[in-house]
Amino acid sequence: MAKVRRFVSPEQSAYARWLELGVRIGMAGLLIVFVLYLIGYPAPHVPPDALPRYWGLSAARYLAAVGVQPGWGWLQLVGKGDYLNLVGISFLISLTMVCYLRVLPETWRKGDMISAAIILLQVAVLLFAASGVAVFGHS
Question: Considering only CA atoms, which of 91, 54, 90, 55 is closest in space to residue 74?
Fold first, then answer.
């Protein structure tokens, strides 16, 4: 059986390297934060023994009940044990955009303006979605 040779562009290779490194960093961070949560440091905003009171609530009602603003309101509580994990999750979510921005200069330098435009549009959409400007559906 003949071997199939696959060509991997420098952009694909750079994207993959950055993504792999980012995932490793993000997962290590999540593990550290989880261990900190288990030992109770820093103290959580909502104590674990109080959580059963809120299980049946919608997200909007839960946030109102515990005094958290929706959207980026969690940033005010990043020093609390139960919200600190959102830093690691946000880091992992942002990796796609970071990897796109990593390959954009190479794509631009090669003169591949269509790919560069697609990358810029994807980054713009991700930034727009993360901004919370347009909220649809749940209230």
Answer: 90
- Tens digit of pLDDT for each residue in 63-81? 999 999 988 999 999 999 9
Locate 95 and state its tokens. Answer: 């990796």
CA atoms within 13 A on the CB side of 67: 4
Q: Please, what is the Cα angle at 85 between 47 and 39, to 5 degrees?
A: 50
Return the structure tokens found at 5: 């040779």
Gyration radius (Cα) of the chain, Å? 20
User: What pTM was estimated for this model as a whole?
Assistant: 0.84
78/36 Cα distance (integer angstroms):
13
User: CA 108, CA 115: separation in Å to the nearest integer?
Assistant: 8
Where in the chain are the domains?
A: 11-96
Angstrom distance (rounded) from CA 115 to CA 69: 38
pLDDT in tens, 25-78: 999 999 999 999 999 999 999 999 999 999 999 999 999 999 999 889 999 999
Per the CB < 8 A criterion, the answer to whether 37 and 82 are in contact is yes
